Amino acid sequence: MAGERILIVDDDPLNTRLLEDVLRHHGYTVQSVGDGQACIDVAPTFRPAVVLMDIHMPGLGGIETIKRMRKRAEFSGIRFVALTASVMPHEIESFRAVGFDAFHAKPINIIALLKEIEGLIGAPAT
Predict the structure, then answer these.
(1) Residue in 13, 10, 7, 126 with CA at minimum distance from that of residue 76
(2) What is the value of pTM for the model shown?
(3) 110 vs 75, 93, 107, 120, CA distance in Å?
(4) Which of 4, 5, 77, 99 could pair covalently with 70 via S-S, beta carbons 3.0-4.6 A apart?
């Protein structure tokens, strides 16, 4: 759904730039931050429908960030997508266990990610 807000949380500027360009091209409003703490700080005012979050970042990583955010009611309507090169089955299961709604392996398949975002935005929040 065009116009929805998406927050990208990734410390890699190349990944961030690619996602920003593609998402804006598809009509989304996008903001990017470089770590988990910035995500926690920005999300209340930006009010994203979806957060695309890298798992491994300096400072506050994706796992700890989502654990903190899932405890706060103000973030309850946000859908979270894990973005990572960690693709072992036990790792993928742990992403869901901590509250991620979806997972995409890096390098990212843009078409699949766009379909996932559309599905998450159209689905009721957990």
Answers:
(1) 126
(2) 0.92
(3) 25, 22, 9, 15
(4) 99
User: 26 is written with which tokens?
Assistant: 């598809």
Alpha carbons 67 and 24: distance in angstroms, whole number = 28
The dihedral formed by the CA atoms of 20, 116, 3 and 26, expressed in degrees to the nearest 10: 50
Phi/psi at 71 (nearest 5 deg)? -80, -10
Strands of 29-33's sheet in order across: 29-33, 5-9, 50-54, 79-84, 102-105
Q: For residue range 36-51, what is the model confidence (pLDDT) as tens digits? A: 999 999 999 999 999 9
- Per-residue burial over 88-117, b = 16 or more CB atoms within 10 Å of its CB, e = otherwise: eeeebeebeeebbbbbbeeebeeeebeebb
Q: Which pLDDT does position 83 carry in this prediction?
A: 94
Q: How many residues in the chain?
A: 126
Fold exhibited by the domain 5-121 = Rossmann fold (3.40.50)
